[in-house]
Amino acid sequence: MGKGKLAKFADMASYPHVFEYPYSVVDDVPFDMKGNWNRDFFKNDNPIVLELGCGRGEYTVGLARRYADKNFIGVDIKGARMWTGATEALNEGLKNAAFLRTNIEIIDRFFAPGEVSEIWLTFSDPQMKKATKRLTSTYFMERYRRFLVPGGVIHLKTDSNFMFTYTKYMIEANRLPVEFITDDLYHSGMDDDILSIRTYYEQQWLDRGLNIKYIKFRLPHEGVLQEPDVEIELDDYRSYNRSKRSGLKTSK
């Protein structure tokens, strides 16, 4: 680990709006904020919105700037990346932005039933080899149900055709209500002030001529969620820090 990362982690440890609970400490350190985010941290009753896999936190910070009547929490395990958004939020005095450094597999440990109103998934790794690692899989959807309000909104913004297609099949298999869907966001007429917040890597993909895809859907609490049983063509390009890593052309 380089000195730059060490300095960033030292900063994060001192930030009042950053909470760090990776696997290595989560069982030993109590997390008293669960069910009390509004009362104990945000000091208001505004809706809570999560950005899962927030990276540098561009969406968390961008949304917090635009919507003072909502509270935003960026979640990721990569602290050195998260430092960028956390530092911006601190320097700008954004009282409605916080960051949680943890593994998303245990996200339901940090929020009580009905405590979260919306989830943003911005350019998540499509995890083409294993369905249970995809952030729109039924594995994760069941966890979201544990803290998302009934019928809460999930936003998926992605460069990955695999992730987009898989999520469409998952939504169709479970008859989840879709509010908006497009495979070319910036030519859909829907690139409004929220959706046009662009992450660092998104701009790189746009510069490479890749279409940005977007789905907005709701997650009811009723019913048993089913995984789609379909073969999906793998992405045929290398996205940031991703590759097929095999000779396969499709995956379930």
From TrEMBL:
| Entry keyword set | Methyltransferase, S-adenosyl-L-methionine, Transferase, tRNA processing
Claim: Flavoprotein is one of the keywords in the record: no
Protein name per UniProt: tRNA (guanine-N(7)-)-methyltransferase
Q: Name one GO molecular function term.
A: tRNA (guanine(46)-N7)-methyltransferase activity
The catalytic activity, as recorded, is: guanosine(46) in tRNA + S-adenosyl-L-methionine = N(7)-methylguanosine(46) in tRNA + S-adenosyl-L-homocysteine
UniProt lists the family membership as follows: Belongs to the class I-like SAM-binding methyltransferase superfamily. TrmB family.
Which HAMAP family does the UniProt entry name for this protein? tRNA_methyltr_TrmB
Functional summary from the UniProt entry: Catalyzes the formation of N(7)-methylguanine at position 46 (m7G46) in tRNA.
What Enzyme Commission number(s) does the record list for this chain? 2.1.1.33
Q: Where does S-adenosyl-L-methionine bind?
A: 51, 76, 103, 125
**This protein's pathway:** tRNA modification; N(7)-methylguanine-tRNA biosynthesis
**CDD domains documented for this protein:** AdoMet_MTases
Q: Which gene encodes it?
A: trmB
Organism of this sequence: Phocaeicola faecium
Q: Which domain of life is it from?
A: Bacteria
Output the Pfam families linked to this UniProt entry.
Methyltransf_4
Binding sites annotated in the UniProt record for substrate: 129, 159, 199-202
Q: Which residues form a coiled coil?
A: none
Q: Which residues cross the membrane?
A: none
Gene3D superfamilies from the UniProt entry:
Vaccinia Virus protein VP39 (3.40.50.150)
